[in-house]
Structure formats: structure tokens, C-alpha cells
């Protein structure tokens, strides 16, 4: 049997090698999280136990920060996937190969814009004195909006920006999955008298469930990682907004930016990975109990 | 293997090659800083084994003749457009004198800390870097990022520097750059002071009848009045990370902040070596209140916390009405504004020097040799030349003579148009090799020259000069407190909270919860020990 699969195994080899070299071997670096790392001794630096984790707890804000990270990621995953599926379905239904390709290109473009530029763009949009938004409001005779000092607005602003950026890219996978559904099933349903919505709900969505499970499960593994670039560029070090917008990555960066302490940075990353791992294993197990076929492993 | 399998196997092999090629280079362990023991005595000791048998060979000459090398030097600051031409000329000189080529790499100001630290953390191979206290010189030296310069090496490969530093008035500098007994930095030093000064719009000041600015509080009142009056201008138009305006009493050195924090300081007026938390002092509450009023009057931008504006640029463009910076940084702005907008009547005020200026410290700035350098001796020679040789110093500081500047006598210069456009005088991170060789801009207004003379008389040493805090026992607390400060202090600085007194009290509470008292205790302990030792 191995001989039959030889070709496939050989094709798999580069990927396996990549993971071994870049993901498994570096796991030995976890030890840095427990060391007072210095450049001379490198991996043999003095061992300090749990001390590198202290700074996370000392400010007392860590609970709120973790809550923000998890909630934002849940919003991105749920809303993101829902909108991506919707977009993919719309693109699939509104025929026309040309239209589909053009629409996809336009939707994907935001993904490639750097957050630095988006941050500058957002500042020019929202800032109090010279922002575009406030210029519009004053033209209409309304009061200026002090966006950067109104924390309640920001969960919405951040979710909208994040979705704007990622929806196009994410819908590609779903679109590919939809294209892979056998057209005969649709024709059979049409003959039986199903209208468009019944076809979508009855055929397209169930066929997408395996893809959805895989993508959501993979995203859940990163639920404790905030997109540092996005939060830092949009918000900066804005004290007023921090209770609503601080995530683990910005918290750690702010703490360690000038400290230049590799051990502590490693400790923070380790916490994110360990918790993410726990989440992904738990959810996978839950899915397994529900329906063995859909789980990842 | 049959024909069917040839293509997939070929493709797999190709992918493998690509994957493996990405591995190269990332695992190179740089040679750990070879600790050259400071050889004692004999002038014939040859740190470089050149293989020649001559027992009285000059090690300096031997190093030069051992072969041509390329030295890489890192500077902090955006690359000036004229650097290429300067490098060309510099390479001619270095080829002639020390048989070396030089490559300069610049770390732009945006996000410089991350990139600069990365140089050392990633083990990148380079030779020289600018280092200073505000770029964590002590931390990086302690971590092994720099290569130690032994006393013998100082004499052999940095002969001119060695002669300069052995002067009575300068010898303390070499001791000040030592970390754990070894020196890692070749300190620059010159007699000019560079205190903070402020540049304002004279036309607006006269329009609103504001008297001349003598103190920091006068400056804040100027901002308040102009913010009130002129709706299109933000008098202090700067970004949330700008800490120049952050320190109310650090500004004129009444208090000196410690451990890189905002909340902890010593009082220089009393000079009693007592560490205290500044947040329960009435001066800070007053400053917070004043900032709130300025914000209400429109003196600060409401979106300052998320802005990326730079004060200097805002002043030059007219969207701001003032700027604070070291006086050497403000002079070019002053001169430029006199030319482009004379109707603004720019004025410079020296408001920081009143309480006494700090004496120059060894760790104020200098050039360091990287631990990963493969040609440390040649690197030291280059530093020596840049620092002490007039030809090199003029070239790297001012640019190519005749193209970027022209000499006016022995120690003055005149910047030519090409220079102002592409290679601003002393604007390419020159602070690593500034010495008495620096030339004075001939268009410098006389009052500046008077100030400089005045300042040398205003140097006021305190008991704490030269004190370096070892933060290992309180590292986690320091990080937690810095985190809190970084988020709260800018909000107070820009008056963005309706109840500034509450905010100050909050900040004190939070920092105490994060271990402020422990930090103060540790600081006091080390300071007492330092004072006891230096009193002997």
C-alpha cells in the first residue's frame, strides 16, 4: 500500500519538513519563557521559574484584556464567517464569470492594504479638528463627533474595519467549496420545485458545513491572539479607549517595548499558545461527540 | 521509475530545495562577544595574530595591513538624501588610512526602538552602532550585545580618543561607560550643552499681549491663550507618544526622574538623595489642572492620543504654534522659519537651563562595537578617526566640502543649498562622535553663542551624577508600572479627562498596586550605597 502512495508521500515531504523545522524544533525555545534570557548564554541563561509571568498580573488589567481579546475574536469569527458565506453564496448565485472575477478582485483588495495605512486613513477620517467625518457633520450643521474619546463606539469601529479587510479573502475558500458542489443536485431540486432560497438553505449551506467547521476550528486556535497591527494602528496608546480595545498583544507590547526582555515576551506568547491549544482541543472534542466526521482530529 | 511519476517527483524535489534554502542563515550563532582580556603592559602585545615575526611591530599598522575589510555602521535616524555622496568620499578616506570600506545603515525614527533592539536580539553581524542611555546602553551592554573595549585596546586602536580622555577634566567619562567592569562605549563629549528650549510664534505672542516666556508655566499659558484665540491653530500640536512635554518639573531639571519612569524622582534643588513618588505632590496636581484648561481652550489637539504629528513639522507648516526640543534641534527650525515665514517672527526661549544643567555623562552618547563584529579592531580605528580626525569629522557631520558646505575659517561653516536640501549639517545622527571639532554654523545668531557661554557656567553637578540603576530585582514591577504610565500619563498630559485630579490620584493608586513602593525602596537602597561610595 505504501508503494501506491509513494508519490503522494513524496509530495507531502516539503510540507512535513517545513513543519518540523519551523514549528516543532523551535518548541524547544519554550524554555526561554522561564529564563532570564541574555545574549551571551542564550538558551543556557539563568532559570527563573514563573517570574517572567509576574508582570502580566501586576497591573490587574489582565482580566479585562483577556476578555477583550476573546470577545473580539469571537465577533470576528462568527460575523466574519457568516458574512463570508453570504458573500460567497451571492457571488455563486449571481452568475456571470466576468462579474464574479471582478467582484472578487475588488473584495480582496482591502486584504493587501497595510494596517499602518488604514490607521492613518482612519485618523484622517475621525479626528476632531480636521477629520473628514467632522467636516461633513459641520457642513450639515451638526455637532462635531469626538470619536477618539468615545470608547463605546470603538467595538463597532474595530469590527467593521476588521471585517472590511478580511471578508474578501475569506470568501474565496467558501466560493471554491460552493463551486465544488455537484450541479446536478441543484437541477434536481429545481425540477422538484425548490426556489432559490430553499436551494441555498437545503443544499449549499449543508454542503458548506465541513468547510465551516474546519475554518472555525482553526480560527479558534488563535482566539487568544489579537491582531496586533490592527489594534495598535487604529487605537494607539489611547488611555480612554483602552478598556474597550486593549488586547493581549497590545498590552504585552506596551509593557515590553522599552524593556527589551526576551524572556517576558516569550512568557506572554506561551500563555496565548497554551490557552489557544486548550480551546482547540476542547472544541474539537465537543464536535467529535456530536458528529465524528466533522472534527479535525 | 516510470514516466508518470517523473513530474511529481521533480516537483517535490524542487519544493524541497526551496524549503531548505529558507533555512540558511537563520541558525547562524554569532560568535559570543570574545572577551579580550585587557592585556597588561607591553606595547608589543599583538591582539591580532598577523603571523609576522617582528617583535616590535606596531599592532595598529599590522591590523591595517592584514587585509581589506568592510565595516557596517548603524545610525539612528532617517537616511539623508546626500548620504551616498558622503559615503563615497568617506570610503576614499578609509581606504587610504585603514584599508577598509564603510557601509552605513540608518534606522528610521518611526519605530526605531524595535528595530534597534532587533539588531542585537537577532544576532545580526555588524560592526559599529551608535549607543546611548536612551537607547538602553546599560541594558544591551549587560546582555552581551556589545564587545568590551579593554584599556589596552583603547590605547592601541583608539589612540587619539585615549589621549583626549586622559585629560583631567575628561577621564571620568571612561569610568562612567563601564558596565560590570568593562567599557563598551567610546564616549563623545563636547563642551556645549543642549538643554530643552522652546520656539514660539512672536507675531501671535504680540497679538495677544503675552509677555516673554520665562518658565514652563508661562509656556503653557501661552498655549492656552493662543488656543482660545486662534481657532485654526493648535499651539501645542504633537502626538501622544511625545514625552518632551510630559514632564512638568523634569523639564528644567528641578526634579530628575528615575528608572525611566514618570512617577519617581529625586529633587535636585534639595539634593538630598531622597527618592519620592511625584504623584502626590501639589505641583503635579497643578500641572494636570492646567493641562485640562489648555485642552478646553483648544491648546492641544483633541485627538492627540492617536495622532502621529510631530511638533517640529507642525510648527514649520503653521498648524502648530510652538515646539519643544533640544536647542540644537531648534536652531535649524528657527533659521528656516526666519527665511520662509519672517512674518511669524519666530522666537527662541531658553527656559530649561535655569536650575542648573547636568554635567556631560559618558553614557550621553558614543559609538559601540558590536559583539558580533568580525573586525573589532578595525571598527575601533574607524571610530577613533570619525571622532578625532578633523577631515572625517567634518565629512560625516557636514557632508562633502564644496558640495554641501564650505568652510569659514577653522571652526565655522556655511551650509550650501545642496547641503540644506540633502545633508543637513550635523543631522545624520552625529551624536556618537561629536567633539570639540564640531564647527559652528556661521549664521548662528549671536544670542545662541551667548547662551552657550552662559550654559558652561550653569553646569550644576548633583550627588546622583553617574548613578545607574540595576533593575533586576524589580523588573516585573517596573514593566507593570511603565505599562500603566504609558497609558495614563498621556491622557493627563493632554488634559483629556474631565477630572484631572481624580486621574492623578487614580494613577498613584494603580502604580502603588503594581509595586511602586517596592521600586522606591530598591532605588533608595542603591542610591544610598552610590552616594556613600562616591563620597569617599
Give an overview in words:
The complex is a heterodimer of chains A (297) and B (536). By secondary structure, chain A is an all-alpha fold. Helices cover 67% and strands 0% of the residues of chain A. Chain A has helices spanning 6-24, 54-58, 62-93, 97-108, 115-126, 132-139, 154-179, 183-191, 196-221, 228-235, 242-245, 248-256, 262-290. The relative contact order of chain A is 0.13. The mean pLDDT of chain A is 88. Chain B is globular, with a radius of gyration of 26 Å. Chain B has 536 residues and is α+β, with helices and mostly antiparallel strands.
Would you spell out the secondary-structure blueprint of this structure?
The complex is a heterodimer of chains A (297) and B (536).
Chain A lengths: L5 H19 L29 H5 L3 H32 L3 H12 L6 H12 L5 H8 L14 H26 L3 H9 L4 H26 L6 H8 L6 H4 L2 H9 L5 H29 L7
Helix pairs in contact in A: 3-7, 3-9, 4-7, 5-10, 7-9, 9-13, 12-13
Chain B lengths: L2 H19 L37 H7 L3 E8 L6 H16 L1 E8 L4 H10 L6 E4 L5 H7 L7 H7 L1 H7 L5 H6 L1 E2 L2 E2 L1 E3 L8 E6 H6 L8 H14 L25 E3 L6 E4 L7 E3 L4 H16 L13 H7 L4 E5 H14 L5 E4 L16 E4 L6 H13 L1 H9 L6 E4 L3 E4 L1 H6 L17 E2 L4 H12 L17 H19 L6 H14 L2 H19 L2
Parallel strand pairs in B: 1-2, 1-3, 15-16
Antiparallel strand pairs in B: 3-13, 4-5, 6-13, 7-11, 7-12, 8-9, 9-10, 14-15
Helix pairs in contact in B: 6-7, 10-11, 14-15, 18-19
In short:
With 297 residues, chain A is mostly helical.
What profile does the largest beta sheet of chain B have? 5 strands, mixed
Give the strand content of chain A: under 5%
Helix content range of the residues of chain A, please?
Answer: 55-70%
Helix-strand pattern of chain A: HHHHHHHHHHHHH
Alpha-carbon distance between the termini of chain A? 23 Å
Please report the distance between the alpha carbons of the first and last residues of chain B.
85 Å
Class computed from helices, strands and strand pairing of chain B: alpha+beta
Give the CA-based shape of chain A: flat
**Percentage beta strand of chain B:** 5-15%
What number is the mean pLDDT of chain A? 88
| Count of beta strands of chain A | 0
Low-confidence sequence ranges of chain A:
none
Gyration radius of chain A, rounded:
24 Å
